[in-house]
Amino acid sequence: MTDDNGVFHASAVSIKKLQATSAEVLWLRKVLETPVKDAIYWMCKPIYRDAIVFYNEEDKIISILNVCLECSFMQTEQQEIIEGDDSMYPRLKEFFKSIGHEVEK
Which end of the chain is more exposed for a tag (fewer CB within 10 A), N or C? Predict the structure, then answer.
């Protein structure tokens, strides 16, 4: 999460910044564009330990996707819920690990 000035929370750790045309980003795009067959809705409150930050060409943040791998939930910083299913979250976990991010679950 960021404050009103676009500054990340003190607990946030940047793992890796990727170019839009990198193999990792192209693979992530495929994962996020996968059609949702059976959306998952758990009864727990998401705790966002993982996030993907999207930048424009001027290196300004345009969106942040908060991800809770524990309860399989995604939401943008603007509170828009992004649906996913059982096939998406293991692949997101794999993505985070592949770029050097330690995943708790």
Answer: C
